[in-house]
Design brief:
The chain has 93 residues and is α+β, with helices and mostly antiparallel strands. It has one domain: Glutaredoxin, CATH 3.40.30. β3 and β4 form a beta hairpin. The longest helix is centred in the first third of the chain and has 12 residues. The chain is globular, with a radius of gyration of 12 Å. The chain starts with a strand and ends with a helix.
Length: 93
């Protein structure tokens, strides 16, 4: 299984929803709370082009936010991505 990192903020319902999906999938993931970490949030915004949370990375590759994660799941691609069967770039095709 690939390494999953989820950047979140407290009281963020989309963050909770993303975590629930990953938990339901049996994924091993690290949650990094950036609620009061302005430098980290600015870095995320600069590197991803998005100021929203959560921001999800699989094996260091940016996947997107909560809706992107659910879209991958609805297309049947999230399981393969989590298992390392396809790369993040292939998953968005």
């Amino acid at each position: 299984m690939n390494m999953v990192t989820v950047y979140t903020a407290k009281y963020c319902s989309f963050c909770e929803k993303a975590i629930v999906l990953l938990f339901r999938k049996g994924a091993s993931f690290e949650v990094i709370d950036v609620t009061s970490k302005l430098k980290t949030r600015l870095y995320l915004e600069e590197s991803t082009g998005s100021a929203t949370l959560p921001q999800v990375f699989i094996n260091g590759m940016h996947i997107g936010g909560c809706s992107d994660l659910y879209e991958l799941d609805s297309k049947g691609r999230l399981d393969n991505l989590l298992d390392g069967d396809i790369s993040a770039d292939e998953s968005k095709l």
